[in-house]
Design a protein that fits this description.
about 280 residues, alpha/beta, TIM Barrel, eight-stranded parallel β-barrel, two-stranded antiparallel sheet, 10 strands, globular
Length: about 280
């Protein structure tokens, strides 16, 4: 099992110095990747824990890419319907290029209706928009001059798509049948938010469908937060995730106060839980 850690790009911890320090701590600690989270327009009644302060997730990853050298950089998860498809592909390609191909693209359809309204995005079409955007990403990363694209929601002529680094791994967020279908069609991994007790049967179903389609089993990603003062209990929880089929574990430390608190928790996890 590989381990990653979430870094806060929201709330008072989302300042330049703290983000950079936490990214470097995560890299030095030996995590495979670090992850940030996507919101753009927080409604006033949803600000608990962030105060409504959120940094744009892709711009934040670009900043972190310049502050680190080898740790991978991920989104858990990008709300795909918030952004135009071609622009998203260009931003992803840019981060992938400038980071030295260290990006992981976690994606989801979103859930916060007021945020969709603020962005002028269609909530009822979010699944279809996500599918077409993923089709666009696959299409554009396939050639320097990919052909024209014509689908019900996205149309564009042929153009030069450069730079064209290796497409980053795509991890599909979501729990239900649509997310699992999307993972099989477009993804390299599945990133559900199911408890371990429910995960195992779903992983077995997904892997069986992948084998039937001639595909390798997908990476199974979970993101969890828990107390680190009882390391035995924490180790047992990680073991339960692995037993349920998870292959990748993102540690969510919640609302750590600053980079010092982040560093202490990271050190405890890596020394006493991950090993």
């Amino acid at each position: 099992m590989k381990f990653a850690v979430a870094i806060r790009n929201m709330g008072p911890q989302s300042n330049r110095a703290t983000i950079r320090a936490c990214a470097r701590i995560a890299e030095q600690a030996g995590f495979d990747a670090l992850f940030v989270s996507d919101h753009l327009c927080i409604p006033p009644d949803q600000t608990e824990g962030s105060g409504g302060r959120y940094l744009d997730v892709l711009a934040t990853l670009a900043f972190i890419a310049g502050a680190t050298e080898k740790i991978r950089l991920g989104v858990s998860v990008l709300v795909v319907p918030y952004r135009p498809a071609v622009l998203t592909a260009k931003q992803v390609a840019t981060i992938q290029e400038l980071s030295g191909e260290r990006m992981i693209l976690g994606v989801g359809v979103g859930w916060m209706k007021p945020e969709f309204a603020a962005l002028g995005a269609e909530f009822r079409k979010r699944g279809a928009i996500t599918d077409e955007t993923l089709s666009v990403i696959h299409h554009l990363f396939s050639a320097d001059v990919p052909g024209a694209f014509d689908s019900p929601l996205v149309k564009f002529p042929s153009f030069v798509f450069l730079p064209r680094p290796k497409r980053p791994p795509i991890w599909i967020g979501g729990n239900g049948p649509a997310a699992m279908n999307r993972a099989l069609k477009f993804g390299d991994g599945w990133h559900p938010m199911l408890p371990a007790a429910e995960l195992k049967a779903k992983v077995e179903e997904l892997n069986a469908r992948a084998r039937a389609a001639g595909r390798q089993p997908a990476e199974i990603i979970v993101r969890r937060g828990f107390r680190l003062d009882d390391t035995a209990a924490a180790r047992a929880k990680v073991a339960a995730e692995k037993e349920a089929g998870a292959t990748y574990f993102i540690l969510d430390l919640g609302r750590y106060a600053d980079e010092k608190a982040f560093g202490r928790s990271v050190e405890t996890f890596m020394a006493k839980v991950a090993n």
